[in-house]
Specification:
The complex is a heterodimer of chains A (143) and B (152). Chain A is of the alpha+beta class and 143 residues long. Chain A has four helices and four strands. The chains are: A alpha+beta (143), B mainly alpha (152).
């Protein structure tokens, strides 16, 4: 069987290119220093890692996401970790939504102690990955 | 106060998306419209009744027993994912219609839209159908709002 080489090449380009673009976009959200840019809008406690949680009415996954967040925070805090949680209604906080490239709800954004974005999660994120992300920021930059 | 909690197996979702991507891309490479036709039929039939969700049945009765994958249960609402499957089935069925009408550019373009949206979910956890579901709920379309908790 002769494989049409042009179609194979197009398939590789489209799939690999899409994944690469997506990773670039998601990666571009990380390490952004947003504490200064959105300082007045964010209720962020300095030097404490903070989880920003964007929700809205009409979001079927937001209740499960809240449960996952509470579970993750409970496990991390039980081991001595300290994080702040700030919730935003995505329909009301339009400037934040635009500035932080919030594409959907629920979205969770984890800030490290310096106010840099350490993790940017569009869509529902389970407790396991949230815990790993939280542990990542809690165990770095500790003096 | 009552709360409705449901569990979604994310491993089954990823298996579903991988099957969609593999079969539609294979159909494109080999120029065989039958493959996206089968995928569209499976997605639409599975939206009507879970007993006809062939990919999920393959996951449950083949992949799991053979230990090719492990379950990944997550508390989530199944409604947006079911809607995403229906939306994918409708778009893919439209692609098949274009292919049957002798319009391969339109047909394969629509098929690739489904592939890339499945890839967005598989690689980045971004559910385009969930996004549309949320937007429809936001503007108040009946049937797209979550069940409210009963307050005591």
């Amino acid at each position: 069987m002769n494989l049409p080489v042009d179609r194979v090449i197009w398939s590789v380009i489209l799939l690999a290119g899409f994944v690469a673009l997506g990773r670039t976009f998601v990666g571009g959200q990380k390490n952004r220093q947003i504490g200064k840019q959105f300082g007045k809008l964010l209720e962020v406690t300095s030097r404490t890692p903070t989880l920003l949680y964007f929700w809205s009415d009409g979001c079927a996954q937001c209740t499960p996401q809240e449960n996952q967040i509470q579970r993750a925070l409970g496990e991390v805090e039980a081991k001595g970790g300290q994080l702040s949680l700030v919730k935003y209604n995505a329909l009301q906080e339009t400037e934040l939504v635009r500035g932080l490239n919030i594409l959907t709800v629920p979205t969770t954004i984890l800030l490290d102690r310096e106010g840099n974005i350490a993790a940017w999660n569009p869509g529902l994120t389970a407790a396991g990955p949230l815990i790993a992300q939280m542990n990542g920021v809690l165990h770095t930059g500790v003096s | 106060m009552e709360e409705t909690r449901s569990i979604v197996d994310y491993s089954a979702l990823r298996f579903n998306q991988a099957a969609i991507i593999a079969l539609v891309v294979a159909g494109f490479i080999l120029d065989v419209p039958l493959l996206p036709t089968i995928v569209a039929s499976v997605l639409l039939a599975g939206s009507i009744t879970p007993n006809l969700a062939l990919f999920k049945l393959t996951y449950k009765y083949v992949a799991l027993p053979l230990k090719l994958v492990r379950p990944d249960p997550v508390e989530d609402s199944p409604a947006p994912h079911a809607f995403a499957q229906l939306l994918g089935g409708i778009v893919l069925a439209s692609a098949v219609i274009f292919l049957r009408l002798g319009l391969p550019l339109a047909g394969w373009t629509l098929a690739w839209v489904v592939v890339l949206l499945a890839a967005a979910n598989l690689f980045f956890g971004f559910c385009a159908g969930c996004f549309v579901y949320f937007q429809l709920g936001k503007i108040g379309v009946p049937g797209f709002q979550p069940r409210r908790e009963l307050e005591g």
